[in-house]
Write a structure and sequence with these properties.
This protein is an alpha/beta fold and about 350 residues long. The chain has 16 helices and 9 strands. The strands form 3 sheets. The protein has a 5-stranded parallel beta sheet, sandwiched between helices. A two-stranded antiparallel ribbon has the order 1-2. β8 and β9 form a beta hairpin. The protein is globular and about 65 Å long. The two termini are about 30 Å apart.
Length: about 350
Amino acid sequence: MTDSMQAKVAATRVKQSSPKKVAPVWTVPQPPSLTLQNHPLVRRHYRVATAAIEQFVDLVERCIRVLVPGALIHARPRMGKTHAIDYVALHLERHRPDILVLRMSCEHHRSDFEGPFFSTLLSAAGVRHPQPKSITDKRFALMCRLSEQLQMRAGHIVVLLCDEAQRLSKHALEWLRDVHDQLAHHGVRLLTFLVGQPQLMEQKAHYQLSGDEQIVARFMIEQQHFRGIGDAVDAATCLASYDLSRYPENTGKTFTEFFYPRACEKGLLLEQSAGMLWNTFVNVHAGAQLAGPAEIPMDYFTRAVESVLLQGAQWDTQDLELGVAHWERAVKESGYVAAQQTVSVMPGQ
């Protein structure tokens, strides 16, 4: 799915005790007429920030500011890492157009070969087929492509966001280090963010023990534990973005208002349901006897919100008050419990 096909919504953190800020919004070109079918929420073409995503953005900004070459961001599966990468890429596109942002999905290969690795990097840089065949030509094409893109931006920084980075082998990191050094020779700074599962921390420890300092010092200087929705304040941050963000940007209705125009006339705000929605997740988590404290992955949280918003045609009245029954239905439809139960019985969990 290309960026031109998507509407992305980002929200700054909204604390219950502080004034709200209208979140920046990324949208596709305005359609001739906005309908239910082409609204970004229906198509799931939007991104909402959590506290963890904002911490990720802060880390990226800090690394850019002082040119830290690499950082490691780890989280359990389904916590919203790919969603966060989307958000960070759009944040940089909006606020730092001089920076070239590359997104690389790290693939699993049974054999560790340099050719496929550089083909993936070339694809991330926008070089499609036909690609050069020899490794030397692939390396040269990559340098040329990055140089051209940076000249267009009048910039000197490349941010590489690696998704599922636990799949990168030691050889791949060494090849990436070569790219880093080649770019530095030409005055270009490559900042790499390894985003992946907790195995990344084990890999870092292994590299430290084995004396591979060149890898740790280049790609794993900073580290951050990425979390899901962890409390009612996190829930309020996300819900407020639906109340504040508009589509089309600046001129359209808020997401909440689009689906509940009558109720919004009387002051309906999803943020007011933050405690209720959070408690519903906590209760079903406990009722299903799921292990550990409740930490809600972004995918299931947004699905619950979408479930409620998409019922607007049926529920919207001026005297509507969203209650426990509404949110219990939404959490059930999100698939949270079924998914967690499936994960809990998988081998190795």
